């Protein structure tokens, strides 16, 4: 796509496209430009598509729109469930695509905020399976590795009362360790150093859990000093600074 087309996209309030390859090109441009609402409106026009590549992008766009601070509570919930529906359809169409597996797992995790502890824990098994499948299909995707690390960290940190509930509900409840989480965070960093402020933060937090002060200082300092591009980056810097002050 030429420069003139990019200019037209950036100026349009709603983007239209017909050819599916053009749609994907425009979607990727808008995503890279942080044009969340324009991207959602572009892809929503094609929500009945059977194309898995388009559907997982629509799932991601729906989720990103839900995450915006100006999105109402009711709209956030409906977008979260819509995102999961698009991701599920994408998975049915192409279960061998790493991005489809990754975004299905992310969207399934998101709906856990609206469902009971039993459903949330049951979904955890499925989420893990799809993150692992995404890594198997593309071991060079640092985000999948990071998210698998988050899964491990979450269950290593699970409060005792939730662990008790999980043990009652499931003969083998989901579990992990900080060592396992660390391996995934480190692999993500090895694949693409400094790719995500949150990965730096969680390397620091995991080393704190493992009582390795020296390595915790190293990674928390990296997280604090990394240039902030997004609101999330700023939150990471703030948390990293607070943790450094506590060491």
From TrEMBL:
It comes from the Eukaryota. It is found in: Cytoplasm, Cytoskeleton. The keyword Glycoprotein does not apply. Its main location: cytoplasm. GO terms for cellular component: mitochondrion; mitotic spindle pole; spindle microtubule. Keywords: Cytoplasm, Cytoskeleton, Repeat, TPR repeat. Interacts with microtubules. Belongs to the RMDN family. This is Regulator of microtubule dynamics protein 1. It comes from Eublepharis macularius (Leopard gecko).
């Amino acid at each position: 796509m030429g420069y003139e087309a990019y200019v037209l996209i950036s100026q349009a309030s709603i983007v239209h496209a017909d050819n599916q390859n053009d749609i994907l090109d425009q979607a990727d441009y808008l995503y890279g430009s942080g044009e969340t609402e324009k991207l959602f409106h572009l892809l929503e026009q094609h929500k009945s598509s059977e194309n898995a590549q388009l559907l997982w992008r629509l799932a991601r766009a729906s989720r990103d729109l839900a995450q915006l601070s100006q999105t109402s509570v009711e709209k956030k919930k409906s977008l979260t469930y819509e995102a999961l529906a698009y991701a599920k359809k994408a998975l049915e169409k192409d279960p061998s695509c790493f991005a489809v597996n990754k975004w299905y797992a992310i969207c399934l995790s998101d709906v856990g905020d609206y469902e009971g502890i039993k459903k949330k824990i049951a979904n955890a098994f499925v989420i893990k399976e799809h993150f692992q499948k995404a890594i198997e299909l593309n071991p060079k995707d640092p985000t999948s590795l990071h998210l698998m690390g988050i899964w491990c960290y979450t269950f290593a940190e699970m409060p005792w009362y939730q662990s008790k509930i999980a043990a009652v509900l499931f003969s083998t409840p989901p579990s992990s360790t900080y060592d396992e989480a660390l391996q995934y965070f480190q692999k993500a960093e090895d694949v693409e150093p400094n790719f995500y402020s949150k990965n730096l933060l969680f390397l620091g937090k995991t080393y704190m859990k493992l009582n390795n002060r020296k390595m915790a200082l190293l990674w928390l300092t990296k997280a604090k000093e990394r240039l902030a591009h997004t609101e999330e980056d700023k939150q990471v810097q703030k948390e990293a600074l607070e943790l450094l002050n506590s060491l």
